[in-house]
């Protein structure tokens, strides 16, 4: 596990993000099979005309 932790730390430093961000990013990739953003909630916006 030390080798993997070292790699995660190196990735985090390379992209200037936290190790926890890298872990969550990889977990999302494993679980969802994609890195696409999740859909946003709420109703679609109106046309703006009244």
What amount of the residues lies in strands? under 5%
Order of helices and strands: HH
Computed structural class: mainly alpha
Instruction: Give the radius of gyration.
Output: 18 Å
Instruction: Give the rounded overall mean pLDDT.
Output: 82
| Count of DSSP-assigned helices | 2
* Biggest sheet architecture: none
Structure in words:
- This protein is 56% helix and 0% strand.
- It has 50 residues and is mainly alpha-helical.
- The protein has a domain at 2-30.
- The N and C termini lie far apart (60 Å).
- The model has no long low-confidence stretch (mean pLDDT 82).
Secondary-structure topology with pairs:
Layout: H1 2-15, H2 19-32
Helix pairs in contact: 1-2
Protein name: Insertion element IS150 protein InsJ-like helix-turn-helix domain-containing protein
InterPro entries: Homeodomain-like_sf, InsJ-like_HTH
Domain Insertion element IS150 protein InsJ-like helix-turn-helix: 2-42
Annotation keywords:
50 residues; InsJ-like_HTH; Insertion element IS150 protein InsJ-like helix-turn-helix domain-containing protein
Kindly summarize this structure in a few lines.
The protein contains two helices and no strands. By secondary structure, the protein is mainly alpha-helical. This is Insertion element IS150 protein InsJ-like helix-turn-helix domain-containing protein.
């Amino acid at each position: 596990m030390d080798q993997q932790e070292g790699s995660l730390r190196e990735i985090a430093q390379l992209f200037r993000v936290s190790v926890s961000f890298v872990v969550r990013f990889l977990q999302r990739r494993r679980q969802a099979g994609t890195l696409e953003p999740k859909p946003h909630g709420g109703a679609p916006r109106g046309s703006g005309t009244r």
